[in-house]
Amino acid sequence: MRIGFSLPQLGGVVARQADEVARFAREAEALGAGSLWVGDRLLAPVNPTVGYPPGVNATIPDEFHHILDPFAMLAVAAAVTETPLLGTNVLNAPWYPPAMLARSLTTIDLVSGGRLVPGFGSGWSPEEFQAAGVPIAERGPRLDECLDALDQLWTASPAEYQGKYWSVPATHAKLKPVRRPPIYLAAFAPVAMRRVAKRADGWLPVLPLTGPGPVDVAELITNPMRHIRQLAAEEGRDPAEIGLILRIYPFPGGTVDDIVNAIHSVSTEPDVQHLIVDLMFMATSIDHYLEMAAEILRRA
């Protein structure tokens, strides 16, 4: 099993230690981290229309009050590491013109020697969409068009795309990623599940740890993945082509024991060959982040 970690991108302490990101990436690689990841937050609204987690809280956690740029974070990690995969879990694709997104991601992939694993989502915060200048009601079709445009920019030259929401005039696009990056999608709603089945290389489920209780692997991973593969077969795809990368997400009050127990719980699930541990709510410093990562890797 490949075990990765989120980069110290969010949080009042670790985000203020941005000058330590390179050291974190190097030391995490030396510890044996198999991948390094970023998320994509733009705002921490004072009066949010939707809190976090959506449907659970009415507020935005303090950790989201301090945000580092995901593209810059990955570029730093790409420059100072040699082996970990570098992923996004997730970029809110509807915010970004596809040509600009392709340029940033292609650069990171080339700097890293082909280690990019882009994960995309549709976003959930109305205030973030307002700040990005994109209507939230268009997020689904904008994501679909972004994926179509990226496919053109990453596989063709000249490349061209004309959609309702995004367009790319015919352009020479000779600088390509080392290999076409495998695209993973976050999905929970039925329409999003079908999007994974129809066009993604894999699914990005989340395993929230709100306490020390047992993990229901069947409900959270096995059954949804079986459903996605059924949908893939309906779309004429080989269901076995669709992978999975699981994010383990402990909330405030979580412990390393909780994380290790969760890893052991999912270790017998055949689809879980790669997981990410997100320590955003637990780390009190870069050194603390690394200490926890070392213990998790040793025990898991």
TrEMBL record:
NCBIfam families: F420_Rv2161c (TIGR03619). Residues 13-263 form the Luciferase-like domain. One of its GO terms (molecular function) is oxidoreductase activity, acting on paired donors, with incorporation or reduction of molecular oxygen. It comes from Spongiactinospora gelatinilytica. Pfam families: Bac_luciferase. This is LLM class F420-dependent oxidoreductase. InterPro entries: Diverse_substr_monoxygenases, Lucif-like_OxRdtase_Rv2161c, Luciferase-like_dom, Luciferase-like_sf. Gene3D superfamilies: Luciferase-like domain. The lineage of its organism: Bacteria, Bacillati, Actinomycetota, Actinomycetes, Streptosporangiales. Signal peptide: none annotated.
